[in-house]
Design a protein that fits this description.
With about 110 residues, this protein is an alpha+beta fold. It is built from 5 helices and 3 strands; from the N terminus they run ααβααββα. It has a 3-stranded antiparallel β-sheet. β2 and β3 form a beta hairpin. The termini are far apart.
Length: about 110
């Protein structure tokens, strides 16, 4: 039986996972896992305009995945939790396992 705390924790986790459930935001997070970047850097990476990238960053900030540091006219972003790379490594392992299973099934 789930407690209220279990339900609240699941809802909070779901908000983070939903924020990550977008290829552009995943690309941004992956770039930030290599170090800080400003909006212009991330705009060049994604090929979207500054407004669109800023909206993606707002979603990521809203769930606590990234932090912003305004310096002069630029805002620099960093991951709020560097262990996010471990999460991606886990997902990559799942994808490798599925690819191997698909290869075995095709033989």
């Amino acid at each position: 039986m789930s407690t209220d705390a279990d339900v609240r924790r699941s809802e909070a986790r779901s908000r983070v996972v939903r924020a990550l459930a977008n290829p552009t935001r995943l690309l941004i997070v992956e770039a930030l896992s290599r170090g800080e970047a400003c909006v212009n850097d991330l705009t060049a990476l994604t090929s979207f305009d500054v407004s669109t990238v800023s909206k993606h960053l707002a979603v990521l900030r809203g769930v606590g995945l990234v932090q912003a540091d305004k310096r002069g006219l630029n805002v620099f972003y960093t991951l709020a939790c560097p262990c996010l790379g471990d999460f991606f490594s886990c997902i990559d392992q799942i994808n490798r396992n599925q690819a191997r299973a698909a290869q075995r099934a095709a033989v």
